[in-house]
């Protein structure tokens, strides 16, 4: 009987010690996963997560196993519901469900910042740049910044000028996302070819709006040959996709610039922007062969300080500018037509940095994609 009591007591002591050890391991494991700003922690900050594109992008990023923490922010209260919703998805990427997450805490130690800029005109979009960029420079100055906006041609130069004002020249870390166009082009090309869309890629060069983004269908991978009629249908599908949705949203005769969503197809835009951010995550982890098309500062085309083209990405941003590939005569013509529009938009962005917060005055048109208001500075008059 005594021996039985002794054995039972030893078993109880052993079980208690094992449970204590397991609890210690569990606490340490959770602590190591949730430590913000550690060397191995990859934190992505998503600004503008309350928009439709932002919600879709957040859902896609939540499923990425490369991301340790996803921080969401927006001016409205809609982002609180997004946080709570995503925090209940059982993936390794952590999302805080608190309602009081400030912009400062969202950006603190972020390695990648996805900035979705919404607004009915360029002035509103510029004001958002002016609100967010100082915080980026304060809390994560070396972060990759992926700009998602309709006015990329003007806003990326504005972003660069705002960095330059603080004495920072991060040419290789600031990106204007073009995946919205490459995703649609790849989808249309796959439908025409009748193959798996996941295996199709159509590069984009030029600018970041429907009139300046040039899809290179001649360089579709896997290699494909399209007839002149097929190319016409593909380009027409790209051109009319946004126009159709804009007409449905705004009503017949209304301007597409009145919508605050950055793109006409927010689900596609969110998916495409998330795809680009995943590529940035891979590059930051030094994976080989990460190539994306983006609108960046470059001297690729004489007379343009910014241009969209293929890039090889690495841990420090742009590893190499891959240059303009050999394109067809028709694609070359499209790019030549886009260059004056891109140059005009770049000039507006560079000259408008000091006027970013002005919202009164006359209305001006930029590349038929966005509008801007200024009191005294006349840029491109609609008159």
From TrEMBL:
Keywords: NAD, Oxidoreductase, Tricarboxylic acid cycle. GO terms for molecular function: L-malate dehydrogenase (NAD+) activity. Residues 43-176 form the Lactate/malate dehydrogenase N-terminal domain. The keyword NAD applies. It is an enzyme of class 1 (oxidoreductase). It holds the Pfam family Ldh_1_C. The keyword Oxidoreductase applies. Its EC number is 1.1.1.37. Residues 185-351 form the Lactate/malate dehydrogenase C-terminal domain. GO terms for biological process: tricarboxylic acid cycle. Gene3D superfamilies: Lactate dehydrogenase/glycoside hydrolase, family 4, C-terminal (3.90.110.10), NAD(P)-binding Rossmann-like Domain (3.40.50.720). Belongs to the LDH/MDH superfamily. This is Malate dehydrogenase, mitochondrial.
């Amino acid at each position: 009987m005594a021996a039985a009591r002794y054995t039972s007591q030893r078993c109880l002591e052993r079980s208690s010690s094992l449970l204590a050890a397991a609890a210690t391991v569990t606490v340490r494991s959770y602590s190591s996963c949730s430590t913000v700003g550690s060397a191995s922690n990859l934190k992505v900050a998503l600004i503008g997560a309350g928009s439709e594109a932002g919600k879709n992008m957040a859902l896609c990023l939540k499923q990425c196993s490369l991301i340790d923490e996803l921080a969401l922010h927006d001016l409205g209260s809609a982002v609180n519901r997004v946080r709570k919703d995503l925090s209940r998805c059982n993936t390794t990427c952590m999302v805080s469900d608190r309602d009081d997450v400030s912009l400062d805490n969202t950006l603190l130690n972020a390695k990648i910042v996805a900035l979705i800029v919404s607004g009915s005109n360029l002035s509103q979009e510029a004001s958002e740049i002016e609100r967010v960029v100082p915080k980026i420079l304060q809390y994560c100055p070396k972060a990759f910044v992926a700009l998602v906006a309709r006015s990329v041609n003007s806003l990326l130069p504005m972003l660069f000028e705002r960095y330059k004002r603080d004495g920072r020249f991060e040419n290789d870390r600031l990106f204007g996302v073009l995946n919205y166009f490459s995703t649609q082009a790849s989808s249309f090309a796959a439908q025409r070819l009748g193959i798996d869309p996941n295996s199709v890629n159509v590069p984009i060069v030029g600018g970041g709006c429907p009139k300046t983004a040039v899809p290179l269908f001649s360089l579709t991978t896997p290699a494909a040959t399209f007839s002149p009629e097929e190319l016409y249908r593909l380009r027409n599908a790209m051109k009319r996709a946004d126009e159709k949705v804009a007409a449905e949203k705004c009503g017949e005769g209304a301007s597409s610039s009145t919508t605050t969503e950055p793109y006409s197809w927010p689900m596609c835009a969110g998916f495409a922007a998330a795809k680009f951010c995943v590529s940035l995550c891979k590059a930051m982890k030094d994976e080989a062969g990460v190539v994306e098309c983006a609108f960046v500062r470059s001297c690729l085309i004489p007379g343009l300080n910014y241009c969209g083209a293929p890039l090889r990405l690495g841990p420090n941003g742009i590893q190499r500018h891959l240059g303009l590939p050999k394109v067809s005569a028709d694609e070359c013509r499209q790019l030549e037509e886009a260059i004056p529009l891109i140059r005009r938009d770049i000039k507006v962005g560079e000259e408008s940095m000091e006027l970013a917060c002005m919202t009164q005055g006359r209305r001006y048109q930029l590349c038929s994609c966005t509008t801007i208001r200024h009191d005294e500075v006349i840029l491109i008059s609609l008159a």
